[in-house]
Specification:
The protein has 339 residues and is of the alpha/beta class. The protein has a single domain, classed as TIM Barrel. It is 38% helix and 12% strand. It has an 8-stranded parallel sheet with strand order 9-8-7-6-5-4-3-10, covered by helices on one side. Helix 2 (61-70) links the parallel strand 4 and strand 5 (79-84). Helix 5 (159-172) packs parallel to helix 6 (195-201). The two termini are 28 Å apart.
């Protein structure tokens, strides 16, 4: 396992992040505590140190399992990321949302479940569209000053809000968001319209959730295997099938798993990207860890890019027009370094 810097920070994290949303058996699926321990052992043995969870995952069981695991490990080896926003109880109107009151309450509860004095990375989970972003940044900065969290991050939020937040943080001397967690995969590339360019500008690492599109990109549904994706899902529509079959063909050519191809594609896009790899079985994790040894050729990348291409819309597609390039660069577009 190699290590990357998380955003503009000096924090070193493994190139694959272990997603723990499946730690716990609530809702009739997931890994029990013993299996979750085995998964974390296998991840740590491979050099992994980056764990992703949330206050709401498995009704708090995910954090509890991680907390129990960390009591028998070197806590400082692991970079633990959790999230606040979503309700973990229905006791009052402020027990959910992005507001400061819920942030402070949620963090205190997460610290207890995780059995730790500090959280390495705290994400805002989902934008509630009512809380001022300066309230969020100031609250997270206060938690950093208190030593309860080390870094601030954000997930599932419009690009303009994240940009406003990081700009305010820079002006006010607050800690900026260092990571952006969004859905991103060969089947879900709309983040390339605004979110990913924004993350690149601010030096944020993108940590994609569902990089395998819930397992659709492994090809198991096309092979007749069953899973949790419903037949009417867009992850199984005609476009998705076309993309998945290209993934399967490249995997067969290279002699690797389909998941290796799909994950490596996200890691080969020219920006800081650390996919979140979830697992409820040790075998799943061990297979996905082999991704780091897979190399996709330029031809492979091109094939995957073409079959999964989306319309960027305005202004992305407008900027890509030859006439616009000519007018903006005077014929020197291909000779000028791009950021």
């Amino acid at each position: 396992m190699k290590y990357k810097l998380l955003g503009r920070s000096g924090l070193k994290v493994s190139e694959l992040c272990l997603g723990t949303m499946g730690f716990g058996t609530e809702a009739g699926w997931g890994a029990d505590a013993a299996t979750s321990f085995e998964i974390m052992d296998a991840y740590a043995d491979a050099g992994g140190n980056f764990l992703d969870t949330a206050n709401i995952y498995k009704l708090g069981t995910s954090e509890k399992i991680i907390g129990d695991y960390l009591t028998h490990q070197d806590r400082d080896h692991f970079v633990v990321a959790t999230k606040y926003t979503l309700k973990d109880n229905t006791t009052n109107v402020n027990a959910s949302g992005n507001n400061r009151k819920n942030m402070m309450r949620s963090v205190e509860d997460s610290l207890k479940r995780l059995k730790t004095d500090f959280i390495d990375v705290l994400y805002l989970h989902i934008w509630d569209d009512i809380t001022p972003i300066d309230e969020v940044l100031r609250g997270m900065d206060d938690l950093i000053r208190q030593g309860k969290i080390n870094y601030a991050a954000i997930s599932d939020t419009p690009a303009w809000i994240v940009a406003k937040g990081n700009t305010l943080a820079e002006l006010m001397g607050w800690s900026q968001f260092i990571a952006l967690q969004v859905e991103y995969s060969l089947l879900a590339r709309t983040a390339e319209r605004e979110l990913i360019p924004m993350a690149k500008h601010f030096g944020m690492t993108v940590t994609p959730w569902a990089p395998l599109a819930g397992g659709a990109l492994t090809g198991k549904y096309l092979k007749g295997e069953k899973g949790r994706i419903k037949p009417e899902s867009k992850r199984l529509n005609e476009r998705a099938e076309k993309i998945t079959r290209v993934v399967m063909a490249i995997a067969e050519e290279l002699g690797v798993s389909e998941s290796h191809v799909a994950l490596q594609w996200t890691m080969s896009k020219g920006f800081s990207c650390i996919p979140i790899v979830g697992a409820t079985k040790v075998e799943q994790l061990k297979d996905n860890l082999k991704t780091v040894d897979v190399v996709l050729t330029a031809d492979h990348i091109q094939k995957l890019d073409e079959v999964s291409k989306i319309e960027l819309g305005f202004p992305g597609d407008f900027f890509a027009e030859d006439a616009v390039k000519m007018n903006s660069f005077g014929g020197f577009y291909d000779k000028v370094e791009k950021r």
